[in-house]
Amino acid sequence: MLPLTRYITDEQIGLFGVNGWTINKQDTMTVNGEKHFAATRDIDMGKVKSMAYEMVRVLVKPHFVQRGTIKRPMSIFARDHLLKSMSFDFMSFDWADRQSSPEYGTSQNQIEASLYRMVNTAFAYSVDRVDSFTVGIDGTTYIMRVFHPFSPRDFKAYVRYLLEHRKGNVRTYDLTGLEYIKERPHSIDVWWDLDNDTIITFDRNYIVRLPELLRATKDSLEAEAKASAVQSI
After folding, report:
1. Which of 118, 138, 195, 214 is the most buried (most CB within 10 A)?
2. What are the pLDDT digits (tens) for 136-149?
3. pTM to 2 decimals?
4. Strands in 9-100 per DSSP E
């Protein structure tokens, strides 16, 4: 079982409560001046295939955003596990050496929980540009692109969060490097919003690979689940 905790607003409690989440009003977190409450649920990893809407898809203000670097050349992870396509910075772990990270526990749960939600709602994902969010690097302008599961209306609301984050008005758990950004950093070039299960980058060549990587990840997890089921017999 994978324990999953999300911090939700008071108005979201009813929606999460009727979908099997346990609400703990004693465990709180203040995000952007608004009190959030802990919602927890155990996810059965042996039932990955049937988890399509085990999670509640709710647009929230980005809070836990994992910074990362795309691994290159991109051909090395073609049709491979999504987590092998990037390395993570500070908040989390590198897939190839994850257990050596001092933050393995909490961060590993956050990323893998987000990944499982993505895998099981892969059919809802699409790639959209944010033309109002551009950066320059070496004299070239790059447009932000987002891999996301939102409806057009929710995506517009999400873009507003991103633009406000750039201005410093929506703060995240740790600095993302997108605040007040004008020039794209060379080292950090991908961001994973663990609250909204989105991946953000200015690299067009990388983001067009994400649908295939997500499908490959789904196949890999289903194969692992089947192998685990056989071993338990």
Report:
1. 118
2. 888 889 999 999 98
3. 0.71
4. 22-31, 34-43, 65-70, 86-88
